[in-house]
Amino acid sequence: MKGQEWYQTAEVAEEYEEKRFSGGGRLIDRREKRAVLEAIGPVDGKDVLEIACGTGRFTVMLAERGADIVGLDISAEMLQQGRKKAHAAGVADHLEFMRGDAARLPFPDDHFDAVMAMRFFHLADTPASFLAEMQRVSKDQVFFDTFNRFSTRSIYNWALPMGSRLYSRGEVESLLDSAGLGLAQEDHDFVLPYGFYRQIPGSVARTFRSADTSILGVRGLERLASVSYWNATVE
């Protein structure tokens, strides 16, 4: 797994959200949370697993909406940040954070209503094995995102500390098929890569975001998106 040691440092965990989701990064945070909520739907009473939950951005959000959720991550430092967030939100008794390996999920088959992973598959060395595990423990739904190969993401990918795995649509379809998953819904966004938005103030980012959204609103131009959200069903 790319960046496994990097994500486990206390310094990275403590600064993770401030560096990525302040300024123009707030637009990314809002969009990702909307994507999750639209995909998972009403969550009250649902059993949900989030793998690679990191600092608990989505874990806590879903717990606040009534989900019975487990957040799993390999980094104890990230999980500690998530626990702090859960306590601050008053939902610490509504969720569970666990340290574990996404390649060997410690749950029986068909254990959760939905299994999700955000900001994960770009780090995966063996995405097929991870997706198969997600499918195994889910009764109904698997949701995840990918960074796209033929997009602006590829332009600066070399400059990232551990790089990223980029996916074509064909690769994602093949992974879904191999894992016994059927594609139920897809969404594509952000012509400009995340790294660009994180480097500019929020007021400036909104202008670029408006242009970005307009481009992707033209039929056929969704192929320019740097990020895709995949909502799949267990077959």
Automatic annotation (TrEMBL):
One annotated GO biological process: methylation
EC number: 2.1.1.-
Keywords: Methyltransferase, Transferase
GO molecular function annotation: methyltransferase activity
All residue ranges annotated as the Methyltransferase domain in the record: 48-140
Protein name: Class I SAM-dependent methyltransferase
